[in-house]
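During the second year of the project, the team shifted from modelling isolated chains to modelling whole assemblies. The rationale, set out in the original proposal, was that interfaces cannot be judged from single-chain predictions alone. As a representative example for this report, we include one of the complexes processed in the last quarter. Its constituent sequences, exactly as entered into the pipeline, are reproduced here:
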Amino acid sequence: MKKFAVIGLMVLLVFVVSAYAVSAPKIYFVSTQMHPAGEREFMVGTLLKSFAKESGINVEFLALTYNEMLSRVSAEEKTGKVTISVIGDLHGGLDVMASRNLLQEVKGIPLPNRTFISTLEKYSVIKGKKVYVPWMQATYVMVVNKEAYKYLPNGLTKEDVRKPTEKWTYEALLQWAKNMKEKTGTPKFGLPMAPKGLFHRFLHGYLLPSFTGYEAKEFDSPNGIKAWEYMRKLVNYIHPASSTWAAMSEPLLKGEVLLAWDHTARIKPAIVQQPDKFEVIPVPRGPAGRGYIVVAVGLAVPKKAPQKEAAYKLIDYLTRPSTQVLVLQHVGFFPTVKEATGKIPTGALRILARGVTAQSSSPDSVIAMIPNLGKYGGEFTNTYRKVFKKVVLQKASLQKEVSAAAKLLKSLFEKAGTPIQ
Amino acid sequence: MRSERSLAPYLLFMPTLIYLAVFLVYPLLKALFMVITPEEGTGYTLANIYAVLSDSTFWEALKNTILLAAVIIPLQVFLALMLALFVNTKFRGYMTIVYLITIPLALSDVSAALMSYNIFSPSGYINKILLNLNLIKHPIYFFGFNATTSEFWVIVITEVWRATPLVFIILLAGLQMIGREYFEAADVFGFTKFQKFIYITLPLLKPSLQSALLLRTLFAFQIFGVVWLLAGRDIPILAGETFYQQTELQQYHIAAVYGFVIALISILISWVYLTFLKSAKEV
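Output from the structure prediction step:
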């Protein structure tokens, strides 16, 4: 009798559990981000677990490559059997999906008590349609050893640089780097120019957009030529060992450079180790504005997505200031909402976030997105490095090299089927 | 029974043949296929070869690889020969010297490059000593985009230090094979030390020299780790460009062309050495 009672109880338990599982809403969230094991564990084990506890919605997290995701979203749309409710991807990828009319507008989602950084908000609207909600961002900034402020050129203050104001220009950077070299005896400005460094991002996402307003479109324009002429001057004050540095953390910590540019993740170790010594500052501006790259990650909803309300709740949860701070602490992606900056604990992360927010809130921003060129991506970045080597280091004919590179860049965009930017 | 015996040599040969077919012939054919096919689409093309040959970086890499080999190999052979002759006098405690000379043989090129970096970097030993002695005010930069000449010589020093022991061991073995009776006969005829070296040692050392030269030249054209770690792409070299095209640019077919050029040069060098340095007695 006792035996039957136990079996009966177990059957009941299984029934209750399955009934709960059937009744609890479940949505699919596909993402091209948070793929490494540690990040995925944080996403599933911490964020989505806490979301399920709070909302009663279970989320199945699917980490896919961009091509896998695009073909799945396209196939589901075609057959009308859409299973995906939320998509997390880079701006470039979402742009392509939006152009294929695969995404719904996400304008009216209730997202209270948060202000999205205006530049990110602006880029999430593609052809008049709000395509995604900004989720995370990463960028490249400058790091200054506070000692370098001693060598600021006349007329430029710390505040101009921190804010940034119109006075913080590439010409001012040239003068600053020159002062440092002349007063310390060695160049103190560094760039990660080693093959594994991200120097090419500086050229296509910072220098060219600041001088021409575009990464490649105006490459051989008079302002494009000026950008390379500028580099010919600046190179005299760039630390010569830059070509051996893949990341700027170590040269900053060793004091080999006092001012450097690099990806936020690659300068973080220096700031974590010596937070009192360094500050993160926005990049300078050029004649066309303050060009910089934003690695913007957005959250989008497929056009025929099931359980849209649950999807909106997930988007609300992921863009909450407190969730965004958790993401910064665990994964290193920066918040997209201004309220999150105040919630970041003091120390290295706050120093980094302050600089990133100052840069992305700058009114003269010229945002550059890493173009979605697929397999031509490598050739694209190599073209900038090649022009730098030939024109700046080997002093080859500027006009000839720049014209040839402009043609090549144009053909790469054409082959990839991406509008030149 | 008879057929079993005739099969035996082939069976013994099989593992080697299978190994060569899987790890050498197949990758080589696959690489050749990549060289003559486009990255996308079907059919055959010479576009990859044209793209590499019309790229100035390829010619720069070829020039640098040849230049490094041309400087490093003669230095290594000369140094190794001098050391081998010195050690072969078999003075007291000469084995200790042999051990000391051969230490770098145990090091990978990456370790050797890192050790070299610790010596020549701005915060390395040389700069520290010079700064402490007040001989310089600022560190000397041996590496960097405007220091390619010093980078070149640091690479030469590192490679000579790292790979000379290999040549040394081959030449020492060769020297120890030369019978004493030749030198005793030379003494009877009143040969000077120099004459003994020219007329006995060198000719009898030729097979060892040939092996050492062949090995070192082939390795010199595959030079990678030391250059990549110390100079990055400041000094482009063939193997470095192959790696860069494959991993950074993900242009696999272009990387295959670079790889194939290295293979062709290696085959050519082997042929030249085996043809023109053939020992007179070999029949």
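Chain B has twelve helices and no strands. Residues 56-109+159-276 of chain B form a domain with the MetI-like fold fold (CATH 1.10.3720.10).
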